[in-house]
Amino acid sequence: MEKATSSAASAAAPSKIGGGGSRRQSDLNRSFKLAIRSLLTSCSKQELAKAFSKFSNAEQESLHRLFIQVITSLHKMLEDEFESLCLETQVGTALETVEQLVEEQNLDPLFSEKSNIMDAAKSLSMEKKNEIHYLTGMLEKAEEQNRCIRDRVELLNQKMPDDSGISVVMEKFKSGNLSYGTCSNGI
After folding, report:
1. Could you give the residue ranges of the DSSP H alpha helices within the chain?
2. Nearest to residue 46, comparing CAs of 61, 24, 68?
3. pLDDT value at 185 more than 70
4. Taking the chain, what is the end-to-end CA distance rounded to the nearest angstrom?
5. Angle between helices 57-88 and 91-107 (to 10 degrees)
6. What is the CA radius of gyration of the chain?
């Protein structure tokens, strides 16, 4: 009976895990209490009697009362230790911050689109990188072609005889054509 009263009172009391009493804090406190209750459930008198069948009925009754007191005390100690750890590590403050961030995100109409924007930015970035790689490859190919053309021109220049006479004739021919044009204008 004592156990039921203390657990009902603690369940009804507002949760003060590491600070204020937010919904997330009360959910955490309630979940912890449910977890330890399921882990530390008291066994029935019949189960205890089976386990200690060689003991007398009076001894079994005393063991059962002692077992209930130990379990009740253990529950209380675990709850107190849990709240102490939550206060030390400021769980309440962290949960309030999380709750505030979630609320801000829910109020932000662009939040759901932010992930799409980030996906688009990543996609665009990848496309630009691919384009840069493609253009770099094209540039390297063009440079290689230019180098090959230069090598061919140089090879052709080396194979051609160096006839300075041909170049002199070409110069005279060019100058003759120019002078011919000036003379005909004057006539």
Report:
1. 2-12, 23-39, 45-51, 57-88, 91-107, 111-159, 164-186
2. 61
3. no
4. 138
5. 60
6. 47
Rounded to two decimals, what is the model's pTM?
0.43
43/139 Cα distance (integer angstroms): 81
Residue in this structure with the two tokens 């120019």, named with its chain if needed: 178
Whether 42 and 74 have beta carbons less than 8 Å apart is answered as: no
The amino acid sitting at 49 is A
Domain boundaries, the chain: 2-107, 112-160
Token pair recorded at residue 51: 């386990």
Which tokens in the block code for residue 77?
Answer: 């100690």
Q: Which tokens hold the place of 58? A: 């009076």
Which tens digit of pLDDT belongs to each residue from 7-60?
A: 434 443 444 444 445 777 888 888 888 888 877 776 788 888 888 999 999 998
User: Residue length, the chain?
Assistant: 187
